[in-house]
Design brief:
Elements: E1 3-7, H1 11-23, E2 27-31, H2 34-44, E3 48-52, H3 60-69, E4 77-81, H4 86-94, E5 99-102, H5 107-121, E6 141-144, E7 168-171, H6 176-194, H7 199-206, H8 210-220, H9 224-230
Parallel strand pairs: 1-2, 1-3, 3-4, 4-5
Antiparallel strand pairs: 6-7
């Protein structure tokens, strides 16, 4: 939520706007004239200012020009008036006002103007990092590295050419579910071959409970008996 400064010489208007904006979750600061508005702006650095045009000492347009000329217009300003004209609205916009509300201000117009002003003033999210080169093409092949392992021939019960290799290629130009299933199938086939078809050791290695592991292998179409025969 935001901190909103309401500047109006009418007590009733200040009270009404404060009640509405507070109910919306905003923090509201009040000022009855330009002097109080200057002090409040310096003290709380508001996210938005609702500024009345007609005030007895310094009018809202003059205060707006003052802030603009001094480089203090770091927040959006919405002008308010019960006797505004098109020329007044144009002048206010020229000097940095974001919107102009005519009194009596309806609840819907007030909340919409506040929402739009705060949204426009919100910090923009950082730009996403550039897409890696391997993800730009539609026919990209992704090499999925596996942890460094000793040669397959050094494992008991495995020949130098049995079981899947520790590094394989996966085509990314396919639906996510298909790509994920292909990777998981190769992953479990590799560990089954590495552990000589021992479901207990594969369950420990992959961190899956045995029943879940059996279900997963069946779902992926992994031939468990083939790994046992190979062992």
């Amino acid at each position: 939520m935001a901190t909103i400064l309401v500047v109006d010489d009418e007590l009733g208007i200040r009270g009404l706007l404060s009640e509405i904006l507070s109910d919306e979750g905003h923090t509201v600061e009040l000022a009855e004239n330009a002097s109080a508005a200057r002090a409040a702006r310096e003290r709380v650095r508001p996210d938005l200012v609702l500024l009345d045009i007609w005030m007895p000492d310094v009018d809202g347009i003059t205060l707006l020009k003052e802030w603009s000329g001094a480089g203090l217009l770091t927040m959006p300003v919405i002008m308010m008036s019960g006797h505004g004209t098109i020329d007044t609205a144009v002048e206010a916009t020229k000097h940095g006002a974001m919107a102009f509300l005519e009194k009596p201000i309806t609840l819907q117009k007030l909340l919409r103007a506040v929402e739009q002003a705060l949204a426009r003033n919100a910090p923009r999210p950082p730009a996403p990092p550039p897409m890696p080169s391997w993800a730009r093409g539609t026919d990209t092949v992704f090499a999925a590295p596996m942890p460094a392992l000793a040669p397959l021939s050094s494992h008991v019960g495995l020949s130098a050419h049995s079981g899947p290799a520790p590094e394989q290629l996966f085509h990314l130009d396919r639906p996510l579910r298909e790509a994920r299933d292909a990777f998981e199938k190769s992953y479990f086939e590799f560990h089954l071959a590495k552990e000589n078809g021992s479901m207990t050791r594969v369950a420990e290695k992959t961190g899956l409970e045995r029943t879940h592991l059996y279900r997963k292998l069946k779902q992926l179409g992994v031939d468990i008996s083939r790994n046992k025969r190979t062992a």
